[in-house]
Amino acid sequence: MIGSRKRVEGGRRPRRFRKVFFLGLCFYMAVGYLTTAFRTLHVSDPLETTLALPMPEGTLLSGVFSVHTERSHDARGTREQVAEAASSVGLDFVVIGDHPPNDRTPGWAIWEPGFYGRVFIDGGLELRAPEAGKVLAMGVDSAYRRWQGDLPSFLGFLDEQEATSMVVHGRGPRGSERWVHDRVRGLQGWEVLDISEASRARFRGPWSLYHVILSVVAFPLGLADESMLHFMREGFETPTISAYDSLRLRGPLTATAGLNAHPKLKLGPVLLPPYGPFFKTLVSHLAVAGPLPSDPATARGLIAEGVRRGDLFISLGDHDRARGFRSAAVTEDGLWIPMGVDVPTRGQAVLRAGFGEDPDRKVAYRILRNGQEVEWVLGPSLEWRTPGPGVYRVEVYRYGIRMGKVFFRLKPWIFANPIGLLEDGPGAE
């Protein structure tokens, strides 16, 4: 009898432990969700709009930057697989970001740009800039094992190549890749968002198990892109974006987004992780002069020029609806200023943004001046008068339910490139 009672008590302990563990895990997952589910905001009601929405000049292209293939030592995948995944989600272009090997391998060479079906793929390179960090370069037609000179000579090389280059991993968690120089003169872009770096940082934090479980459940359900976007718990309030806002005050610098996608395993035609979910996370929408020409070199030049101009916005998920977004500033003399441009102005201007024919009514606009938040305005459209000169930037958030000042499921959606309204007159630089 005593032995039987001991066996019964011994059997209860594992069941009790499993119950406590399960309840603890449920509590942990619930808190992990609730930490990003609610936010309190002081918002201004929308004003009746008096100005038409700006229309993009030319053509709006959607694509992604910084995608790795099997040419990078730590990735798998081919250009054909990249193009297939991009086409399946409706992208127009992909800029590869392979890094040259330390030792040349047979068959490794600069990739020429080309069309794969309807998707244009540019063979960009991820290069290490001496004394600084890493850049993604478009249009480089020669590679090197290690640059022997200093940063000015490296930037001179890029200039000679007429390359369009952007800083990547600018404030990422890996110190060996972080941009450490105090300037970016000679470069055209700064990667403000990087889905892989966000996930890397998240898996080192207190909510790492939460995100692991979320990802494991999401992938079989076809929600992998949603779980990856959830890695970005800080939204647009990150050191990388703060650094960009500071650098942008010194002159035009295009904000871009990178995937840093590295498929690690190749099982026959299957890649793990696959490109597809990445291609639905951070999509760049770029206004260019016209449709992509059939000549690959000319197409590359068109995209590169668009990046330099900076009439570009980034969507975090739901990129089909995001394509309807428009943003510009209108000066008092009626001049329309697109994103990415700096202009002198003698008076105030109006920021105008919205979504064209199908406005999303559950949106809120965050307005920043010189990197500092100045106001939140409820959607569906934004028409807001600037108080004076400055570099202005608009962010768009979506939400589920609003209860007064409390917003449920407020999620960052669109990051628009800034517009510089510079002081014009006596004493202006």
Low-pLDDT stretches are 425-429
| Helicity, as a percent range | 25-40%
Mean model confidence by pLDDT: 89
| DSSP strand count | 27
What's the end-to-end separation, in Å? 94 Å
**Share of β-strand residues:** 25-35%
Q: Specify the structural class.
A: alpha+beta
Q: What does the overall shape look like?
A: globular
Q: Characterize the biggest β-sheet.
A: 13 strands, mixed
Summed up, the helix count is 10
Radius of gyration: 24 Å
List the helices and strands and how they pair.
Elements: H1 2-34, E1 38-40, E2 43-44, E3 59-67, H2 79-88, E4 93-96, E5 114-116, E6 119-122, E7 125-129, E8 133-138, H3 151-160, E9 164-168, E10 189-194, H4 195-202, H5 208-218, H6 224-229, H7 239-248, E11 254-258, E12 265-267, E13 270-272, H8 275-278, E14 282-288, H9 296-309, E15 312-316, H10 319-322, E16 326-331, E17 336-338, E18 342-345, E19 349-354, E20 363-369, E21 372-378, E22 382-385, E23 390-398, E24 401-403, E25 406-408, E26 411-416, E27 419-423
Parallel strand pairs: 2-21, 3-4, 4-6, 9-10, 10-11, 18-27
Antiparallel strand pairs: 1-25, 3-14, 5-6, 7-8, 8-9, 12-13, 14-15, 15-26, 16-17, 16-19, 19-22, 20-21, 20-23, 23-26, 23-27, 24-25
Architecture overview:
The chain is of the alpha+beta class. Helices cover 26% and strands 31% of the residues. The protein contains ten helices and 27 strands. It has helices at 2-34, 79-88, 151-160, 195-202, 208-218, 224-229, 239-248, 275-278, 296-309, 319-322, and strands at residues 38-40, 43-44, 59-67, 93-96, 114-116, 119-122, 125-129, 133-138, 164-168, 189-194, 254-258, 265-267, 270-272, 282-288, 312-316, 326-331, 336-338, 342-345, 349-354, 363-369, 372-378, 382-385, 390-398, 401-403, 406-408, 411-416, 419-423.
